[in-house]
Here is the input.
Amino acid sequence: MSAADPGWNDAEPERLYVITRGRSGLAETTFALVTLIVSRSEPTATMQPEHAAILRICGSPLSAAEISAYLKLPMSVVTVLLTDLLGEERIEARACVPQAILPDRALLEAVIHGLQKL
Amino acid sequence: MDFRSSETVVGPHSADLLPDSATMAVKVVIVGGFGVGKTTLVGSVSEIRPLTTEETMTQAGEGVDDLAGIERKTSTTVAMDFGRISISDEMVLYVFGTPGQERFWFLWNGLFEGALGAVVLVDTRRLEVSFEVIGRLEDRGVPFVVAANAFPQSPTYPTEELRAALDLPPEVPIIACDARTRESSRDVLMALMRYLYDLSTQKLTTPPHLTTPPHLTTPETP
Ligand SMILES: Nc1nc2c(ncn2[C@@H]2O[C@H](COP(=O)(O)OP(=O)(O)OP(=O)(O)O)[C@@H](O)[C@H]2O)c(=O)[nH]1
Ligand SMILES: [Mg+2]
Here is the structure.
C-alpha cells in the first residue's frame, strides 16, 4: 500500500474538477479525516456515481479517510461530495471528539483499555 | 477512460465493517524520516488492511505569479497510510503514517488537527532527520513520544543520550520498538496514551515546577 498505488494515478485535476463541479473542499470544515459517515438512504440510478458509491459503501460507519481510500479520491474532493450528501440528508456524519487542548481522561482510559486487548 | 462508476468502487471487506454503534473516532499520527518504519508500524497495529488516503497540496509558485499563469501553482499529492483499531463498540482509533516528504505534512491542516498526539519514529543511525519534525510538533503543541525503531545495524544508545541528542525535555517518553511486531507497536501507542494521560492529570493540578516548560530550564547540550 503506497502512494504508487496505480488507482491514484488517474485522479488527474480535470477529472476531479468534474466530480466536484469546480468546488473546492477548502472552506468545508464539517468533515475531518476521522469523521464517521453512515448512509441514511439508498443510492439512486440518476445520482452522480461518486455520491452513489459513498452511499453504497457507508452502510456501516466509515471514516472520511476510508471513503477517500476506497474511492481513490483526495480528501478535499470527498469533503465536497460529503457536503452534498449531508445537505440532502442522505448521510449521517458522526463528528470526532471535540478537540480540547488535551484529550479527556476518560477518553484516554478507554483507548488504553482498548489497546490492552489488541 | 478513467470514468469510475459507482459499481467499480470496492468497499470494505465484510470482516472490516464497523458496528453501527461506532460513534466516536480518534486518531494518532506517526511521523519520522524516510524509511524509519512508519508504514510498517501502521500495518502492524491495524486490524484492517492498511489503506491510503491522499490530499492535493497546492503551493503558490516561487514568489510572484507567472504572467502567463503557467507556473502559478504547483500541486503536490501527499499520500498517507492509515490503519484502524477498534477500541470499544463505540470508539475507533485511526493511526496515520506520514510519507517521507516532510515539508508537506504541516501543509495538510487536517492531519494534526484533532489528533490525540503523535509518535516520532526514529532510526538511531539518522537522528538528524527528526530534528525538524520534533520542532514543528512542539510549535504546534502536538504532544508526542519518541520511538526508536530497532534496525539490526542501528546502535542502541542509553535513553538519556538519545534525549540529549534530540534535545528533548525530560518528560517526553522515549521507547525502543520493533515496528514489525504488533505487541511492540501497540506498546508505542500505549506509551503515547499514558503520556497524554499524565499530561492531562498534570494540567488539572498544575504543579508549580511545570509552569515553566522544563526544556527551557535544561542547559543546552554541547
Ligand atoms: N529490522 C527492522 N526493520 C524494519 C523495522 N521497521 C521497518 N523495517 C523495515 O524498514 C523498511 C522501511 O520501512 P517502512 O515501514 O516502509 O518505512 P516508512 O517510514 O514507511 O518509509 P517511507 O514511507 O518511505 O518514509 C522496510 O523494509 C521494513 O521492513 C524494524 O523495526 N526493524
Ligand atoms: Mg511509508
In short: Residues B 38-39, 81, 97, 99 surround magnesium ion (ligand 2) (CB under 6 Å).
